[in-house]
Amino acid sequence: MPIWIELLVSLLIxxxxxxxxxxxxxxxxxRLRALQLRREASPARKREEQ
Length: 50
Fold this sequence. Notes:
The chain is mainly alpha-helical. It has one helix at 3-49. 94% of the residues lie in helices and 0% in strands.
C-alpha cells in the first residue's frame, strides 16, 4: 500500500477522534449557555408579571 494512503487513513482516524471528543463538549457548553440565558431572563419575566 502506498505511503500516502496510509498517511491519509491515519489523518482521517485522528480527525475522527478529535471530532468525537469535541462534539459532546460543544453540546454541553451550548446547553449550559441556554440554561444561563433562561436563568437571566426569568427575573425579567417576574418583574413584567408584577
